[in-house]
Amino acid sequence: MKAIIFKNRKLEDKIDYNTPTLTKPTQILIKIKAAAVNPIDLQMFQGKNEARVLNSNILGRELSGTIEKVGESVKKFKTGDEVYLAVLDMGSNGAFAEYVVVEEEIVALKPSNISFLQAATIPVSYVTAWQVATRLNQPKTSSIFIFGASGSVGKALINLLHHFGYHNIKGTAGNEQSVEQLMKQKLKKENLIHYKSDNLSDEIIKANEGTLYDVVIDCIGNEMTEIGAKVLRREGLYIDITNMKTDNAAYTLFRKAAVIMNISRYSEPELFCKYGEILDSLSKLINVNDWYLQEFMDLGELSSDNLYEAFNLLETNRTKGKKVVLHPSYLLN
Q: Phi/psi class of residue 186: alpha, beta or left (left: φ > 0; alpha: ψ in -120 to 50)?
């Protein structure tokens, strides 16, 4: 099969990579039609923390495609089904290839009303956002601030929080394009704060009529966590999806007796089924709701040159709030 392999800190096109085969009766062979490029892929390419979970020299964490073959014990799916999933380290290889073999429990039927390219932008961000929204358990009137609201997880959070009845939402955005996209999700322009604003914490508090927030959701990490800790009320809820708090932020949260909720991917094998279950639930919601979904930038055919360009766009923050997708173009026909 065709694939992009990661070798000696470089990307390489491979047209004769071995196609994975089923080794268990519970597995599925998927022909990949679209793959999204994520910050986690860039981190792995750069050799950062996430590289520790790399189990293949093919990167790529989320994809959509059609089922090519099913194992004899597979009950939920059949050949030809259109599916989407977050493969993470739970498959034979990553998404930047023509095929992947995975266990059926992490797979879900693609929402019928969206394209393969659109579907590939959903799994990682929405599985993360689902964990936040379903664990939140706060009064529906709670004031919520999202750091990184214009990112893919932030956008997914807004749709799901609205679905679960939370509407007092404000957040950061980085440019006018991102503001426009968030306004399409029914956030007011005055509730969107540019993350490079002078006196950022004051601007964030001012947007909440001068009061501290009940809930802060951090999708950014590092120095921004200090602002997040500062704008949270005493005994408020701080939701961390980055695991990148500074020591100062941790100290402030401790002094405020904050409740901290950590959101992480399910890494234990017995919890892998959670991915398929969550995506099944999301497919049902997407099929019946007129949600404004993540915009995407189609960089075209799967190639090392296009993936290098995607990484460069992510690293230099030039995606303008869009998710980057690649595909073996002839498979989209």
A: left
CA pair distance 303, 286, nearest whole angstrom:
30
CATH of the domain at 57: 3.90.180.10
What are the CA-CA distances from residue 38 to residues 9, 10, 132 (Å)? 17, 17, 19
> Residues 109, 112, 118, CA angle at the centre, nearest 5°?
90
State whether 11 and 138 are in the same domain: no
Report the pLDDT value the prediction gives residue 321, as an integer from 0 to 100: 83
Rounded to the nearest 5°, which phi and psi values hold at 209?
60, 35
Share of the chain above pLDDT 90, in %: 81
Residue-wise pLDDT tens digits, 165-178: 999 999 999 888 89
Rounded Cα distance between 230 and 102, Å, is 43
Alpha-carbon distance of 120 to 124, in angstroms, equals: 9
Pairwise CA distance, residues 155 & 171, whole Å = 10
171-222 per-position pLDDT tens digit: 999 888 899 999 999 999 999 999 888 899 999 999 999 999 999 999 999 9
Q: What residue numbers bound the domain in which 144 lies? A: 125-262
Chain-centre distance for alpha carbon 100: 20
Phi and psi angles of residue 4, each rounded to the nearest 5 degrees, phi first: -105, 120
pLDDT at 256: 98
Domain's final residue, options 262, 285, 316 = 262
The β-bridge relationship of strands 144-147 and 169-173 is parallel
Tokens, residue 102:
């995975």
134 and 249, same structural domain?
yes
The first and second tokens of residue 71, run together, are 């194992």
